[in-house]
Amino acid sequence: MAQFNEESRELAVKVVYYGPALSGKTTNLQSLYEKMDPKVRGRLMTLDTKDDRTLFFDMMPVFFRTPGGVKVKIKLYTVPGQVMHESTRRIVLQGSDALVFVADSRKSETASTLAYWKDMLRNLEANGLDPHAIPIVIQKNKMDLEDVRDDEFADLSRGPKVPVVPAKAIQGEGVLETLRVLLALCYRDMDRSLGLSRRFALPENEFLGSVLSRVEAR
Amino acid sequence: MKIQPSVLLQATPLGDLLDLRSFSEVCQSFAELYRIGLKVFDGAGNRLVDVKVGNADFCGYLWQTPDGRTQCMATVQRVKTEPLHEEPAPSTVNCFAGCRYAIQPVLYEGDVIGRIVFGPFVPDDLVALPRALAELSPDFDEKVAASYLQKIRRVPQATAEKVLKHFAEILDVLVFTGHKNLLTARLHIEAVQESYREVQEKNRQIEGSYQALKELDRLKSNFLATMSHELRTPLTSVIGYSEMMLEGLGGPLTAEQREYLQIIMDKGESLLGLITSILDISKIEANRVKLVVSEVDVNTVMRDAVATVTPHARKKGLRVTWQPAQLPPVQCDREKIRQSLINLVTNAVKFTPSGGSVTVQARADGTDRVAVLVVDSGIGIAPQNLARVFDVFFQVDGTTTREFGGAGLGLAIVKSYVEAHAGDVKVESVPGQGTTFTLSLPVMASGPAALAVRAHPTAAAG
Fold first, then answer.
1. Which residues contact B402 (CB under 8 A, 6 or more apart)?
2. Quick one: which of B204, B203, B219, B453 has its CA closest to B339?
3. pTM of the model as a whole
4. Number of other residues whose CB lies within 10 A of the CB of residue B66
5. What is the distance between the alpha carbons of residues B9 and A16, in angstroms, rounded to a whole number?
6. How far is B6 from chain A (nearest CA, A)?
7. B393 with B434: CB under 8 angstroms?
8. Which of A52, A49, A68 is nearest to A9 (CA)?
9. Would you call A44 an interface residue with chain B, using a CB distance cutoff of 8 Å?
10. Which residue, A122, B149, B187, B412, is most buried by CB atoms nearer than 10 A?
């Protein structure tokens, strides 16, 4: 649940990039790091092993003040993809406000994608989060590779609100679009629960515009 | 379910991200390098580091007057609390005595989590001490003050800001590194706790299954004991009445009737033996067997055992012999040891083909033990099966069950009985040539505690 501190007018949001091993979660964060204005983002924190596999998580903070004076702090996390880090995934997922499910679109990865999707739903429930209520975007990543699926991940059981965004994260394509779609969903969710526009004069275009205008257009 | 707070989102004060002792050393050397004082405060205004360079005499001189003290404290307060912007730019606080402080916010993830205070230094545009100083006290000596001021470094504003920026960048790396390590440690602890919880949960499940199995095992032993007892009672009648008829108590018998009755009696006896074995092992598993210890002549036990199996062995065409030996009397339960020896000799007879031999011999084993050996010229036991022959219900293979019969209890009983005497039983074998079982017993009985008969662990699991 996103936190809004009324006194300091600060909004804290936690976004988690979830998905199978090697589906491109860290690549998403690295690409966003490259594209974002250093004024609105902190260092990219990676906790990885020698072979570049994520050990605990990656984290990048994004922070800005809206024209209306609300301070927004978004923290983007990735989870470690390897099967053995199940408990770490569950811990990183604690208290998340929105999720990007990064999927490898190749047909060969269909089974693994479904398994991690179910794993994510299970871990959300274990953390007391409602998988049907939390904003989720599926990123159809690795569209630059051969033999990708042409469906919209119909096998992942989900509510009608989960959009699918195609991406080639390694080339930086679709990464921003994924974040934009997610933040839009996230804003509407927070607006419902916190009354961002009504009580805190933070309309959607200010929320999205403040972060996305500080990103290199490409 | 309550939503758990994330360990990753906990706010951390600046002091927790730095090792303050080594950070102070860095600040010390930094301040000495630039010959300007350095202070670091956290977001709540707590002073983490304070290095003074060159200003002690000057400030001390001003501090002597009440008015100087008041103004000095006000300056320090401003330095600590001057509002800072959330951007990496320095601001300045001028001291009433002409000196200056440069202040830089410590920014992390868009938040001001502390401040770096550089100073006091003398701005290079300061020509003379402020006139107001002369009014602090009638004793105020401008020359003394000016000489003390000389000890404070004179530096252009731009240089001070450049040095300050440089220091802020170093601190930023330290904070980032500290935060990264802190998160790693927190997550590591969480992951270990999570794994521990999982292991605990699994242990609880295993413990539950184990208790259920133990209960089932107990029920099985009870069932076996009860059934064996219940089977024995009618069987005793079957054998007894057959015997009475054979003795002619029911009137004269034809040769055929006599033969049939003899078969009924023999089969009844072997069934009784089997049921007795089951009862014995049930008692062992239920820890219900007590040893009745007396002084026993091993030669007599050997003779009895051989006499018991001789009729059957003779029928099979085997030679069973025993060799008396010079032995001390052994303190043991006569019935249990006799039963053990009969089991070994019966086994030897069972697995030795016609024309073979079974020999029972004994010898003193050192001064305090007696060994009894049962040697046969039978089919032998393959090496991979040697370790398991004492397990309950173990049979070398399915075909032996059909050819030789038996329930796989005899050797398990021997092992339990012998170990209850603090003795042991060993087996050596060459397949096709024969097997030797060696039963070794202490001459003196051990204390009563060791005398409880226990099923061998593997036997109990079998």
1. none
2. B453
3. 0.68
4. 10
5. 13
6. 5
7. no
8. A68
9. no
10. B412
- Kindly state whether A64 is in contact with chain B, defined as any CB-CB distance less than 8 angstroms: yes
Tokens 């049939």 belong to B260
How far the first Cα of chain B sits from its last, in Å, is 45
Nearest CB neighbour to B187, from listed A56, A71, A129: A56
pLDDT at A94 over 50: yes
Do residue B110 and residue A61 have CB atoms under 8 angstroms apart? yes
Please report, as a single letter, which amino acid is at residue B128: A
Instruction: State how far the Cα of A117 lies from the Cα of A124, in Å rounded to an integer.
Output: 11
Closest among A42, A7, A35, A212 to B88, alpha carbons compared: A42
Range B121-142 average pLDDT: 88
Q: Which of B6, B179, B190 sits opposite A14 (nearest CB)?
A: B6
Of B179, B184, B195, the CB nearest to A87: B195
Ramachandran angles phi, psi of B11, nearest 5°: -75, 145
HEC sequence for B70-125: HHHHHHHHHHHHCCCCCCCCCEEEECCCCCEEEEEEEEECCEEEEEEEEEEEEECC
For residues A166 and A131, give the distance between their C-alpha atoms in angstroms, rounded to a whole number: 22
- CA A151, distance to chain mean position in Å, is 22
Contacts of B184 in chain A (CB under 8 A): 47, 56
Please check whether residue B185 is in contact with residue B123, taking contact to mean a CB–CB distance below 8 angstroms: no
Instruction: Decide the pairing of beta strands B154-155 and B319-323.
Output: unpaired
**How far is B179 from B12, CA to CA, in rounded Å?**
8
- Count CB atoms within 10 A of the CB of residue A33: 18
pLDDT at residue A44 above 50? yes
Helix (H, G, I), strand (E, B) or coil at A67: coil
- ipTM value of the model? 0.86
At B435, which amino acid appears?
T
Q: How far apart are the C-alpha atoms of B85 and B253, rounded to whole Å?
A: 123
Residue with tokens 């989102």: B9
Asked if residues A63 and A71 have their Cβ atoms less than 8 Å apart, the reply is yes
Q: Where are the beta strands (DSSP E) in B109-147?
A: 111-123
Tens digit of each residue's pLDDT (9 = 90 or more) over B25-82:
999 999 999 999 999 999 999 999 999 999 999 999 999 999 999 999 999 999 999 9
pLDDT tens-digit readout, B418-443: 988 889 999 999 999 999 999 999 98
CA separation for the pair B140, B123 (Å, rounded): 22
For the cut 70, the answer to whether the pLDDT of residue A93 exceeds it is yes
* pLDDT, average across residues B440-448: 78
